[in-house]
């Protein structure tokens, strides 16, 4: 447990619209990257704190951009599982080892803390995890050194058992 108090104000939100809104800002901030955004056509209603979920996506996109080469591909994909939607942010960047993956959700952990060219505090993923868990979602990382990283999270869809 990250031990932080996160206040979530859930409102009725559509997953596709929410993601498109967050991605739109991102494309213009990093024109040198290729963002392949999800085109979610089906309505996927969520009870979620839209600003906080946007914050999650921004953090994951920031990491994808910070730990991969200029001009590489950053993909946002989604999948509807039973009662939940799974969103993933995938990059073709430097990747991480299994040992590193196990620590990146810790506060202030950075794989290469000596690299002063990257100014992160190592808080992003700890906060992201707190927000997703406050929504009763799960978050995990798959990564391969030198190949890239995928960070996926789930959010319960409206109408799933514990929200009905
Ligand atoms: P902050 O997000 O607080 O500005 P940060 O990006 O260093 O700083 P986190 O987002 O928590 O902190 O990430 C922790 C560490 O995990 C990073 O410093 C980096 O070493 C590693 N990491 C996170 N995302 C990726 C990624 N997509 N590819 C490779 N390494 C990553
Ligand atoms: Mg970060």
Automatic annotation (TrEMBL):
Cellular location of this protein?
Membrane
Which residues belong to any copy of the Histidine kinase domain? 1-159
Q: What is this protein called?
A: histidine kinase
Which organism is this entry from?
Syntrophotalea acetylenivorans
Which residues of the whole protein does the chain here span? Answer: 827 to 990 of 990
């Amino acid at each position: 447990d990250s031990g932080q108090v996160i206040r979530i104000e859930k409102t009725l939100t559509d997953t596709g619209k929410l993601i498109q809104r967050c991605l739109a800002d991102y494309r213009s901030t990093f024109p040198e990257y290729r963002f392949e955004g999800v085109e979610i056509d089906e309505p996927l209603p969520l009870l979620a704190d839209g600003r906080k979920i946007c914050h999650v996506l921004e953090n994951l996109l920031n990491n994808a951009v910070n730990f991969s080469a200029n001009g590489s591909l950053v993909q946002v994909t989604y999948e509807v599982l039973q009662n939940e939607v799974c969103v993933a942010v995938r990059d073709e960047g430097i990747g991480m080892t299994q040992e590193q993956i196990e620590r990146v959700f810790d506060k202030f952990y950075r794989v290469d803390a000596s690299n002063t060219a990257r100014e992160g505090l190592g808080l992003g993923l700890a906060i992201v995890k707190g927000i997703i868990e406050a929504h009763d979602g799960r978050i995990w990382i798959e990564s391969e050194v030198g190949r890239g990283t995928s960070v996926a999270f789930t959010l319960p869809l409206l109408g799933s058992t514990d929200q009905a």
